[in-house]
Amino acid sequence: MSALEERGALTPRPSLYEYALRLHRAEPKGRLPKGGYPLPDPPQQQDSGLKWTEAQAAVSKVLAPLLTDPDTVRAADEVHLRLHELGARDRHIRVAVAKLPLDDEARARALGRRLARTGISTPTVSVGLGLLARLGEPEDVPYLKVLGLLRGFTGPAVRALTALDCPTAALVWLADCVEGRELRHMVDALAARNDEAARAWLLLVPLEPRAVGSSTARRIAEAVRLDDVLREDPVDTRTVAQAGRLLSRMTGLRDFRAEILAYPHAVTAYDDLIARASQLPPTLDHFATLLCLALDLHSGPSFLLNWRPGQREALLDTLESVLTTPAWAAVPADEPTDPAERRRAHWIRRTARQPFTARAASARLRVEVAVRDPAEPDTVETRLLIDGRPLVPEAFGRGPANSPEYLLDSGRLRATAEPREVQLAEAYCTEGCCGALYVTICRDGDHVVWRDWRRPTTPPSRQPPPELPEYRFNAADYDTEIARAENDHSWAWPARNTGRLIAAGLRDRPDLMTRWDAGPGWVGTDFTDPDVTVLSFMYWPGLAAGQRDKDGPWLQFIWSLPEDGTPPEDRATAALHLLATSDPKTYAEIRGGSREFAEALGFPWPEGESR
Asked: pTM of the predicted model, to two decimals?
């Protein structure tokens, strides 16, 4: 027996339920921990090394005969021992338990209760929670609530509580300790309930970007009856601010499409919210929320709502009058010390006038780059407006328009005598899944023509979008607008400008990469930290000599350049010089390929990567 096993035998571990209950009872005034309590150090457990389906099958094989064992105590001990020997992970266990046949529900329920209440390991308790999610009863609610205080168990506990239709108060009690992905489970559970306690919590829930996307925001708005709430008198400022965040989140495109167009009360909610905008205190968060709404009313999906004549324009006028008052105008003038807040203030300075700047009414085509609030990472898109209407959300609606680097920096929107097909937008889940929007651009005498549209067919359950006509533009006006958009970088921040200049240098001198057997990938900014410029490339042995083995080993590298205050022009020049003189594989990090490929090419596979 090892020292660890001997110590475990002499000092029995408390169950995870007892551990969580003891921690909670020690809290002053029953306070709940944000993010939950950490799990105690787990017993040593070997990794099964099994693939996903193999691991699920192995778990099912272990559990199936124990579900009908009349001796619940013995069965629970067997579950603990066998899962420990198997090395099964919680994610395998949860899926396997959800699919198990339950021939004797009473015995399976008894086993689930035993495991949930006395289990000392996460795999054991995961089995118990999975069984109670299918067979739980009201008497299980107190135990599920306590287990939900442990990190990693909040989501399963919420699903189990929801499945047995527990009182809303049980879910709200847990709500204060959830965050991240677990918060999404809680929001979904409470948004499905039609009672005041659920609505009161949803009206105040923090809208973390990772947890509350466009579709979840719409479900919250519908659950709390947002349009009715905004018509009450009075409405406190916290509710007004939350309403603005919900509408703003509904305009985002991280959930495949902007849900604002599917929210039936959008026009009413916009009207009532903006009428109360002046009630909000002038803060950075409130400024960012109102500016996001203005951007979407100006050129985003919200433009397409069923507005009365002049109604949308009047709302933009109201927002402009609020945001340009001295108190509000002073908000982004300060230089916050927190990097995230500073990034947000700089975005407001760059963007504050964009939704309120009138363009010539005669311009048939308008190209605008839209950048959303950096506190809610989203795509940077090239909005294309024809006769004032945003083309992509109306004609496609499955994802944002492509980035300015793709459409503008590359010159793809320029018109030549030779017809050229251009991808204007791609579904958020990728073209291979849900398609893309293509158009053929060509010059025809004094006109530029957009024709021969390609886009995915519409599912029978959805109303087909309008047929796309052939668009003809005055060639001189078209060329002027495209040239203006290509040279307008007022939307960009330093790290993004650095990436643009590096990409331009690589287009002019592709040999900077190929000399190192490297094929350039994409250049941009890190999605989670936009102040970091990122260059990706593929290492293909033999590429420089034109002898790349298409079936041979390869690796993907990422070179990250954090912002350091140096002007983008100088940063890009230095980066290009380094690429010209030093192999980037010596200072970039491996992010793709496989362990086998890395070993074959003489590179260490990064720790933490599973492949």
From this structure: 0.84
